[in-house]
Write a structure and sequence with these properties.
Its main location: nucleus. It is found in: Nucleus. With 456 residues, this protein is of the alpha/beta class. Helix content is 39%, strand content 11%. Helix 6 packs across helix 7, helix 8 packs across helix 10 and helix 8 crosses helix 13. The longest helix is centred in the first third of the chain and has 21 residues. The protein binds iron/sulfur cluster.
Length: 456
């Protein structure tokens, strides 16, 4: 029996399912199934497949990648911390940790704190271990969203029936991108937005911008990302830093919020709270998030920008209309009875299937779709919103949603630092350096390989 959420006929997973959209399912070890050393990815979740993992399952993850993903764990983090304590000053690594905004509501809920106090507690804990800098990834998310806005407008102008540049599909979720690249291939990959994800941009900011400011060689920095899901560990493997020596990775290790919380619970350190650092060496802007419900918030900022740039329309409140379910929502801009823009948010595998089916049939009504692998968005990432037995923790998710809603919303354009970064770091907003640093080319076979061809 295959996973009830996946309709791929080739999917050979033996599963037990529960009744949830984001079911966790018991599987035989992939090595048992295939007779090969592959599928280490699943072992990270105690041999369970979650839906987001399903989008990057062992048919998409090579044996070598599986090993490298599994190596990103607390042990690796402590290895570097301990080496720093023992080795000569000249050999020490500078430890920098960057925290995703969707992780902070988890720490706030876990320790019954506000988001601000939770970030101070987390920062104090990491520094007490020997971490030198703790950042958040907000400025990297600003750059990612701004580049996505510009790309959408470019695609809209370029789009024609002969050479369709639309729809544009969001590319910040590594589970979805990996699935699109490795399984779907053409015709889906040309529609993926080329803007790099916040994690990838943060890697370049730390290993390039920050390293230069601190007069450090990038390989002296050990950069850890704290993220809501395991898929970001996989993403870290593909993050070479543009303009740096080949093979230099932007993130050396990704730890989930749950892995960090476990360290905090097991620690008997008396911790003094501390403020987050900034890449710029000054006071941090107040905690903020992009408009949107549970994700990095691409849909609303791109929608507002496109409405203004393309139709000179100022959008007030962005109104979401639930379609098939609350994880498939639509936003439209209408004038004189005509729909000028039609955007959608499609979260979770079930809704992704529908998007892909429509795209393949050539009957696609949307200009942009914010696609996320996890039903419920990033707050529901499997690295934080699950019970000990691997089920979705609905009560925790509800609490995190409430907490996330209290974080002030700021438009990416309003960040004082972003324009400085374009000017000082990237030689201008439209320079070749900005394009290479902030954009990527998505891989993908022209047609899915035979063995991976999908029969929906
Ligand atoms: S939706 Fe968010 S949490 Fe889930 S796999 Fe994608 S990036 Fe990770």
């Amino acid at each position: 029996m295959k996973c009830e959420h996946c309709t791929r006929k080739e999917c050979s997973k033996k599963t037990k399912t529960d009744d949830r959209e984001n079911a966790s399912v018991e599987v035989p070890s992939p090595a048992q199934e295939s007779g090969k050393e592959k599928g280490e990815f699943h072992k990270l979740a105690d041999a369970k497949i979650f839906l987001s993992d399903c989008l990057a399952c062992d048919s998409c993850v090579s044996a070598e990648e599986g090993v490298q993903v599994a190596q990103q764990n607390a042990k690796d983090f402590f290895r570097v911390l301990n080496l720093n304590k023992k080795c000569d000053a000249s050999e020490r690594k500078v430890l920098a940790v960057s925290v995703c905004p969707q992780s902070l509501p988890y720490f706030a809920a876990k320790f019954s704190l506000s988001v601000t106090d939770a970030s101070r507690r987390l920062c104090g804990f990491l520094k007490s271990l020997g971490v030198h800098y703790v950042f958040d990834t907000a400025v990297a998310a600003d750059l990612s969203v701004l580049e996505s806005q510009k790309e959408f407008v470019r695609r809209f102008h370029r789009h024609s029936e002969q050479e369709p540049a639309l729809p544009m599909l969001a590319s910040a979720c590594p589970g979805w991108v990996r699935y699109a690249e490795r399984v779907l291939g053409h015709p889906v990959t040309p529609h993926l937005c080329t803007a790099r994800s916040p994690q990838q941009i943060m890697g370049s900011l730390v290993k390039d911008y920050f390293a230069r400011r601190q007069a450090l060689s990038p390989d002296k920095i050990f950069h850890v990302i704290v993220a809501p899901c395991y898929d970001r560990k996989l993403e870290a493997l593909q993050e070479d830093v543009p303009w740096a020596s080949p093979g230099l990775r932007g993130a050396d290790c990704v730890l989930t919020s749950g892995e960090i919380a476990q360290m905090m619970e097991q620690s008997d350190l008396s911790v003094r709270d501390a403020a987050l650092d900034t890449l710029f060496g000054d006071a941090r802007e107040e905690g903020r998030r992009h408009e949107g419900t549970n994700s990095d918030g691409y849909l609303a900022p791109i929608f507002r920008h496109a409405a203004k740039e393309l139709f000179n329309e100022d959008v007030g409140e962005v109104t979401y209309r639930a379609l098939r379910n609350r994880d498939f929502q639509e936003v439209t801009l209408e004038k004189g009875g005509e729909v000028l823009l039609r955007f959608a948010a499609a979260y979770g595998f079930r809704n992704i299937q529908n998007v892909v089916l429509k795209l393949k049939k050539g009957k696609f009504p949307y200009h942009f779709v914010e696609v996320l692998a996890c039903a419920g968005g990033c707050l529901n990432g499997r690295g934080q919103a699950q019970t000990e037995d691997g089920r979705a923790d609905k009560a925790l998710l509800r609490e995190m949603r409430g907490i996330y809603a209290t974080v002030p919303v700021r438009a990416p354009e309003s960040s004082a630092r972003v324009q400085d970064l374009y000017r000082e770091w990237l030689d201008g907003a439209d320079s070749p350096r900005a394009r290479e640093t902030l954009h990527t080319a998505h891989q993908g076979p022209e047609r899915p390989a035979d063995g991976r061809d999908i029969k929906w």
